[in-house]
Design goal:
With about 200 residues, this protein is an all-alpha fold. It folds into 2 domains: about 40 residues, Arc Repressor Mutant, subunit A (Orthogonal Bundle); about 140 residues, Tetracycline Repressor, domain 2 (Orthogonal Bundle), CATH 1.10.357. It has 11 helices and no strands. The longest helix has 24 residues.
Length: about 200
């Protein structure tokens, strides 16, 4: 059971988000209840609804925040001179492992308001970063279809991250860093010795 300290002052929205992230990380998004989060935070049952309206609104806020965090990480990677598509994949895998609750929600459009303007904008920002990286790559590295290269890279990173998160690669990984294992796998998969 997740234990949340009673909310006394400050940012109720953040307190509810943090409580929700803890619940999702331990029990999944199906365990979220605004009434339960309010009880855990020590506020009236209507207080979370003031910020999020409903459960889907709360999960939309988590999806927005997750996309923003991922975009920030990818932007940081792009600011480094040697960044290529594989480096972004490594960032993606690490994000999935460091932010499991966000990752769990971000790719479940059945849980949130998928057309919410702030979510559309956050997802577009992440997509633009990936597209920019692919478009800057020489064609001999990415192939003639940039969109297909982007989809292949995303699919590889997403699939690998989910396998790691599910414990399916524990024996394969041993004590190795999943991000670096992904880097090696991606180089083999995409026929690159180097980014």
């Amino acid at each position: 059971m997740v234990h949340i300290m009673a909310y006394h002052h400050g940012d109720l929205r953040r307190a509810v988000l943090d409580a929700a992230l803890e619940v999702i990380a331990t029990s999944g998004p199906g365990a979220i209840s605004l009434r339960d989060l309010a009880r855990r935070a020590g506020v009236s049952h209507a207080a979370p609804a003031h910020h999020f309206k409903d459960k889907a609104g709360l999960l939309t806020a988590i999806a927005v925040e997750g996309n923003e965090l991922l975009a920030d990480s990818l932007t940081e990677a792009l600011d480094e001179d040697r960044t290529g598509l594989i480096d972004l994949g490594v960032r993606y895998v690490r994000f999935a492992l460091e932010h499991p609750a966000h990752f769990e929600v971000m790719y479940r459009p059945d849980l949130y308001h998928r057309r919410a303007p702030e979510l559309v904008a956050a997802r577009e920002r992440t997509g633009k970063l990936m597209r920019r990286t692919v478009e800057l790559m020489p064609e001999e590295k990415r192939g003639p279809d940039a969109a297909l290269a982007q989809l292949a890279a995303w699919s590889a990173a997403h699939g690998f991250a989910n396998l790691v998160r599910g414990g399916n690669l524990d024996r394969t990984l041993g004590d190795r860093d999943p991000g670096e294992v992904f880097r090696g796998m991606a180089r083999v998969l995409f026929g690159q010795s180097d980014d």
